[in-house]
Each structure stands twice: as C-alpha cells, then as structure tokens.
C-alpha cells in the first residue's frame, strides 16, 4: 500500500517530544522532504483549534476515560491526500500511524456528536513545504510565569529562522491574506464534507 511506501521507518524511529506536536509534525515533514521529496506536495499540516482554543479530541494518549478524551488548546497532525487516498499521521493517538483520514476523523473528532459551539473544531491546512519554509517557534508558549518549561522541550534547538515566533498565526482560526504561508481555515462542517465526500 502507498502509506508503507511513504514511511518505511517506524514511528518509534521518528523524532518525538510530548506536548510539542507542532514541532513533531515539522520534523516529520523534514524527514519526508529528505527521503521522498517528490511526495511533499501531497502533504498538508493540519492545525486543529477554535477561537476559544478548546477542542475535544478522542483516542488521545493524554486523554481520560474509556475513550481517552482530552481537551486541547490546539493539536497538530499531518494530512496526506492523493486522488482517493487520504491519511492522517498523529503521534499522540492510540489509532494506527497513519490512519485512513475518514476513520481518524470519526474516531478523533466525533463529527456526529452534538457539542457546544465553544468546543467545535476548526481546521487550518497548510501545505507541508510552506510550513517547512515559514514556521517558527521560540517555545515561549511553554514557559510558565517563572520562565520554566511546563513540559521538557526537544533536545534540538528551537525552530527559528528570522528570530520571531509565528506559532499563534497557525493556531489562530481567523483566515488572513497569506494563504501561501499560513494555509486555509475551514469550519468543521466544510472540512468533514470535503473529507467524507471524497473518501
């Protein structure tokens, strides 16, 4: 199958740091660009959040209860789409890595469940290559009031190219005029319609 051809390495061989999903996905994109550059245009980075920065995700390793649900301020996964095949790569799920995108969405976002507006998911899709070119984070969002990290940071240096963190531009679910840099924002219904209609 195609997904086996894309990732011949094991998930356990990839760089991963708990609570730094945006960097884990950045490093995965870097690995794909290095090993299979001809495939990079088929990948998009998917930020999941909403204006309240409060989105429930199920089947997460950090979750609780039988369905392992957790409420994140945001989460980041990698989305692969080519023709009729669509996959999601999520380092923090109990689901397979990768998972078919429609299966992942049903299990992780529960699109058929009625939830309050403040918890409704929104999605920002950024071309993987653009994410590699423009994403920057100084990790300041992980510092508490005493300047201490709330979660141990990755061992490699912070991803800074121009000296200014722009993580908030990706977490924000307001569409700006820089689609080529920050991608496209979609409400949940629009994202699910495109996903399940094409699946």
UniProtKB/TrEMBL annotation:
Domain Protein N-terminal glutamine amidohydrolase alpha beta roll span(s) in chain numbering: 16-193
* EC identifiers of the protein: 3.5.1.122
Catalytic activity reported: N-terminal L-glutaminyl-[protein] + H2O = N-terminal L-glutamyl-[protein] + NH4(+)
Q: Kindly list the GO molecular function terms attached to this UniProt entry.
A: protein-N-terminal asparagine amidohydrolase activity; protein-N-terminal glutamine amidohydrolase activity
- What Gene Ontology cellular-component terms does the record carry? cytosol; nucleus
Q: Which Pfam families match?
A: Nt_Gln_amidase
Q: Kindly state which keywords UniProt assigns to this record, in alphabetical order.
A: Hydrolase
Q: What job does this protein perform?
A: Mediates the side-chain deamidation of N-terminal glutamine residues to glutamate, an important step in N-end rule pathway of protein degradation. Conversion of the resulting N-terminal glutamine to glutamate renders the protein susceptible to arginylation, polyubiquitination and degradation as specified by the N-end rule. Does not act on substrates with internal or C-terminal glutamine and does not act on non-glutamine residues in any position.
Record family assignment: Belongs to the NTAQ1 family.
Describe its assembly.
Monomer.
> What is this protein identified as?
Protein N-terminal glutamine amidohydrolase
| Origin species | Mucor circinelloides f. circinelloides (strain 1006PhL)
